[in-house]
Amino acid sequence: MLAPATLRAELVEPPLLAGAVERGELPPMRERLPDDPYRTDFEAMGREVGRYGGTLRTLETQARDTRRMVVFGYARLVGYDPDGVILPDIASNVDVEEGRSFTFHLRRGHRWSDGEPFTAEDFRYYWEDVVNDPNLGRNGLPRQLMVDGKGPVVTFVDDWTVRYEWDAPNPAFLPALAASLPLEIFRPAHYLRNFHARYAEPEELAQRVAAEGQRNWEALHFKHDQSYKNTEPDLPSLQPWVLATRPPADRFLFRRNPFFHRVDSDGQQLPYIDTVSMSIASAGLIPAMISSGQSDLQTTALTLGNYAFVKQGEDRQDYDVLRWPSGKGSRMVLFPDLNASDPDWSELLRQSDFRRALSLGINREDIAQAIYYGLARPAGDTVLPGSSLFSPDLATRWTRFDPDEANRLLDSLGLTGRDVSGTRLMANGRPLDLVVEFAGEDGEQTDVLQLVAEDWRRIGVRMLFKAVERDTLAARLAAGSPIVSVGTGLENGTPRPEDSPAALAPTDSSQASWPAWGLHFESAGRLGAEPDLPFAQEQLRLNEAWRRTLDMGEKERLWRRMLEIDADELPRIGLVADVDQIVVASRRLRNIPRTGRWNFEPGAFFGSHHPDTFFFAPPTATAQAQP
Amino acid sequence: MLRYLAFRVGTMISTLLVTSVLIFTIIQLPPGDYLTNYIGELRAEGDSQAEEKVAFLREQYGLDQPLPIQYLRWISGFVRGDFGYSFEYAAPVSEVMGDRVFLTLVLNFATVLFVYLVSFPLGLYVARRKGSLADRSLTLTGYLGLATPNFLLALILLYLANALFGISIGGLMDPAYADEGWSAAKIGSMLAHLVVPVVVIGTSGTAAMIQRLRANLLDELRRPYVVAATARGLPGGFVLRKYALRSALNPFVSDIGDILPQIVSGSVIISVIMSLPTTGPMLLSSLRSQDMYLAGSFLMFLAILTVAGMLVSDIILALVDPRVRLSARRGA
Hints:
Chain A is an alpha+beta fold and 627 residues long. Helix content of chain A is 30%, strand content 16%.
């Protein structure tokens, strides 16, 4: 069906840009591309060479979701491929020595979306004028640039080579650069200089500060230096599509970056699709809008519950409803807060047997059938079968439904007294009224919790649940107020031994099982509380050992040990795993994988599948392609 | 009349002042501020650097100052047309509000118009035919309109409008016009998209209005002066227009004051459900993120809209019914 590559040697300009090239406003494609563009391996990815043009329509729920395009576009210095391997992308190559010295080779002739050269100067600007500037960098280096409290030695070898060196290995560095919310160690220097006191004309700068309602030049610089927020059409970018609409708006357009650095297997510049249009709509309306054909590619606001509804419109609107397995360790997790400020509850929650009893008291099979139409796997929150670290024993440890054993465990903890309603009593006579707090008002969590409450009544635990705003919940967690909260499982459900196991140890204050311990680690001991449970200390120690070693066998051994402790101690009570994400994709849209892991980190949702290679087949071809 | 006006405007301004204090207080009631929410959001996306990023922003945004000072800065700017700074959009509030205020006015005005245009003739019609089939069926429809949850009605009507007339779901115009300037086609598209929200927001008001006019008219029609006029052989329509209706009109007009807040707040909810580019959805999201100057300004705008509407209703009332003017003069 496709013409052989040799016949396509004549490169076509994207029609959207052809006019500008003819008028001489834009250089021709060859000059817009770097000398050695990123050649997408179409054969390996199973993609077909596409055609230019078209607008991809999608719907998001909030104007701030313009940032989704930074995730969707996923141009990174280095990026994950769909298998979770980190490969060079914007950088043409990275030399890593002993895990502590990283040399980035940039592509000669690579340009920002406004046509200015992208060089080592952009790295120098970030290093010297942003993060080490006494005014802008007041808060110190990003954590991922610190090893044992020290930053890297940065060398700007030449215009296209930059080196970052530490004394000890920094395994967090490349993953941070490849993250969906990336650590960006470069900045569009030519643009940001306009807002920097060291470079800008003082008078002009003062005018700008006043005109934009900012307090001082630092705030002005910060306002313009937010590539991830993606709210500024003027900010030069390296992404395949660049914001073209100035917020506020209800529909955002993203136009192709004429200087994007990737090409297809014929050497044609990507992306294929000219424009991405993102309309803002309320979540409740989105399924109806899809079924009336108002989206070409949609995942936001779609859950398994909408499956039947959107499926009905498939043929009428000519789209496919795909299911992508989730990459999260668990769809829904109960987090017992081991740092809860309530002394009675904290004492109970800190006992492994209490957490195990809660877990054994839940009928997961029931939940999978009743809420997820049997399309979910009852399991704890651990790695998924897709990971080499998976073992069935880990996924099912303490997850069978066994109320008798649960009752026995609770009895052995001395919780033998009961009140008239059959609820167990603590030693001091307080009933076990367990308040579960969850963010968001979507029906799914409420439905699941209702089933859990039923189950727990049989083991003498009365659950009360309370919906709060996500932000309020975060604040309450930081204060140790909730007893048990609800969230989703491990962010990376299919890790490889070289991926960080930090999520299993108290390393982050956003971990709802132990926010205070996480904060302690995060702040290097300045804030929070030191972990005082042996298993948490052990996890921290193992995580640290993992960071130190470069031996893959050792890394894997440490991972397995941590997963073992994690599954046995149950700091997170997972309910069901493998709940698919619904993807609605126009049948005209090509090169989009029929299935793949749906995950923010790593993989950036569609990002690691290179949406710049997606294209629209002509309408007539669609009819032929459909059997 | 002038004194009456001055008195009304005076009350209006003091009402707005009290409202502004209330608004500012209520927005500040939930724990935290915009930046604590911002931290939470960055965290949720895996940014481990959130706290540091935000540390100096608090100072930049002036969030380290005491609340009364923040309030005074906001309200004193308000008079000069400076509505403060939106943290979320990193832009002055006036820029962020833009078209939305206009579209909100269009939506609310269209709804008020709809309510009156529909309820006035219908109220007249059913009052004259009390107990007839038309009366009963209209009353039934009205009660249905009152009883149906607005969001349900909105979803059903949106679906029907799409299935029958191909009107795109959500928004106040076809997506194709979103970035274009105003043209006849764009206005046409907007009018087509206005139908469903106006009907949804207006139904309950219309139903109530019809019943009120009907009840008032029925009361008047039984009065001796009407009976006397009819007995003298004046035609029924003339008696209704020149006698009964004039007296029955008073509550109908003064109801603007009641119906306007109802429409304004109803339109916020419906705008969120139907994704209309009015102030509604932005108000909700700014309240959630505690973007206080933006939320405060939107709420103030809605308050001003309501108060101004009431003023209009009072003025019309004073024009229609001299007793109102006189009593105000006597009271003053």
